[in-house]
Amino acid sequence: MTSGALFCGFYSIITAIGGNYVLAAIYILFAMILDGLDGRVARMTNTQTSFGEYFDSLSDMLCFGVAPALLIYLSSLSMFTSGYLAKISYIACFIYIASTAIRLARFNSRNQTTDKKYFMGLASPAAAAILICYVWLMQDLGVVIQSYVTLTVILIVSLSILMVSNIAYMSFKDINFRQKIPYIMLFVISLAISFISFDPPKVLFIFFLFYGLSGPGLYFFRRFKRSKLNPNDISAKDNQ
User: Fold this and answer.
1) The pTM is what?
2) Topology, domain 2-239
3) What is the C-alpha to C-alpha distance for residues 47 and 42, in angstroms, rounded to an integer?
4) Mind listing the pLDDT tens digit for each residue in 103-121?
């Protein structure tokens, strides 16, 4: 499955170079699905190894670092061949790739006793999903994405910052598929698939963007709740 994800990332690069940006985005989404399955399958079959973890990270670097950066560069930023805009374009894409590498390195070196219900920083597959669905949405709407270069650069830099930040995100790794799945969960899954099939680029972009904003939203919500506490309670929490 990891090799399949690696192939999807590689073929996404090939199709992006060929100018088929929508297909390139779809192949990265396929890589996301395979990346989400390989770890779970390894744990369910008790075949997880250190080799598999490192192989998965190298695959993630290509699929969710290099491939999305190249896709966004070719689809919207490559038109600038000289001047400050050209430099800003490839520097922003490099910052995204470097942030993905830092995010993966930090994930691999994490303490094994940390709470696995949360990711520290935005996961690289989620960041890549926002970026590629942004390209897919612009292509679907028939918008000239080159006209939104400022928005594109802001999006790239914002995702890069979120990946290397200390903001907590839900990982959903506590979901156990070995147990019986409630009927309401099956209904929610069916409803989600129905919405996605209705208009994939819009629904997927909104979904992944909402997840990307959920981390900062929860962070500021906790800060707001903490500010409502008494000063003595805040000082007591700081001393713990």
Assistant:
1) 0.84
2) Four Helix Bundle (Hemerythrin (Met), subunit A) (1.20.120)
3) 5
4) 998 888 775 545 567 778 8
